[in-house]
């Protein structure tokens, strides 16, 4: 089945470039020319992923993301024409999975879309059998923290904590090696593949967002900072 991708950008030329690249990759793009239409089309089509420009009329991309995050954890990839890193970090902190700065390579954009979709793809029975030997889909626990790879769900006690695809990948990485300290490059390699590079600040933003979500669920600290090195799963999460 073709993956529906909602493309929201007020520049028709950019939409045309993205739509062509997605169609060539076997996906089904849906176009929105502004933020308000993006919200409407999201509710109507329930896409697998959203490519969302930050600067749009009616509602900007950040407002669209906030509105969608009230009801859905659908992956969101931001587009930004600004060089200001703050815009990118704000976008990730309110629930974005990734960002691409304009001008961009359509090939890189499609690669990033594929990376995110791969993270949220349901596990079929054949995949589970083939990969059980590596314990990739084994239920993991750490104190009150429970991660179920097969259903792509994370719980704090009995409470479901809704994570984006990248956030889930990062927590999964930590739980498989609970004693290990991961530097930013190691986390980047887990959350992103296909030789895609993101800045260390992007990883920091994902970590802050994960911490905030678990704090709202009642977990005071889920990921510890090891100064000068990186991050690790907190030793006491109970």
UniProtKB/TrEMBL annotation:
Origin: domain of life: Bacteria
Q: Which residues bind DNA?
A: 137-235
Its cellular-component GO annotations read:
cytosol; protein-DNA complex
Does the keyword field hold NAD? no
Q: Which GO terms describe its molecular function?
A: phosphorelay response regulator activity; transcription cis-regulatory region binding
Keyword line:
DNA-binding, Phosphoprotein, Transcription, Transcription regulation, Two-component regulatory system
An example GO biological process term is:
regulation of DNA-templated transcription
What region holds the Response regulatory domain? Answer: 4-117
Give residues where 4-aspartylphosphate occurs: 53
* SUPFAM superfamilies in the record: C-terminal effector domain of the bipartite response regulators, CheY-like
OmpR/PhoB-type domain residues are: 137-235
Q: Which Gene3D superfamilies match?
A: 3.40.50.2300, 6.10.250.690, Winged helix-like DNA-binding domain superfamily/Winged helix DNA-binding domain
Query: One Pfam family this chain carries?
Result: Response_reg
Q: What is this protein called?
A: Response regulator transcription factor
